[in-house]
Design brief:
The protein has 131 residues and is an alpha/beta fold. It has six helices and six strands.
Length: 131
């Protein structure tokens, strides 16, 4: 099987993470950091009235909290990446890789029928390629 066949035959839904952790806009950076550490994860979705509006990633901490010396009680609304960039669950993983590359991001929210159902990361893609 060629690399192109491999990339087009595997769908995002086959490799994405379905366990989502979400917080509201007023959750503090410190609370999110503790949740990430405890969960061993690098991203948490941010919701406003049950609608996903952004994502906070480990990179957001480095570039926004640490680099700008913001206090740990800063609400995630101030540091989240928004708007939330999404991809459909039944797209091939090659489409996810292209979107991540073009947007210069490492994590995509995955949607099904307009609802966020998971997340796919660059690590998921690399793990899949290594199989």
């Amino acid at each position: 099987m060629s690399r192109d066949d491999f990339n087009s035959s595997i769908l995002i839904q086959d490799v994405m993470t379905r366990a989502l952790i979400t917080v509201n806009l007023s959750t503090t950076a410190l609370q999110v950091a503790k949740m990430m550490e405890q969960g061993g994860i690098g991203a948490i979705l941010v919701q406003d009235n049950s609608n996903p509006v952004g994502i906070v990633t480990d990179r957001d901490f480095a570039t926004k909290i640490a680099a700008k010396n913001l206090p740990f009680d800063t609400p995630v609304e101030k540091i989240m990446s928004s708007p939330l960039i999404t991809i459909n669950h039944n797209e091939p993983i090659s489409t996810a890789a292209q979107r991540m590359t073009s947007k210069k991001i490492r994590k995509l929210a995955v949607t099904e029928n307009g609802k966020v159902v998971g997340i796919i990361t660059s690590t998921d893609l690399v793990t899949q390629l290594a199989k």
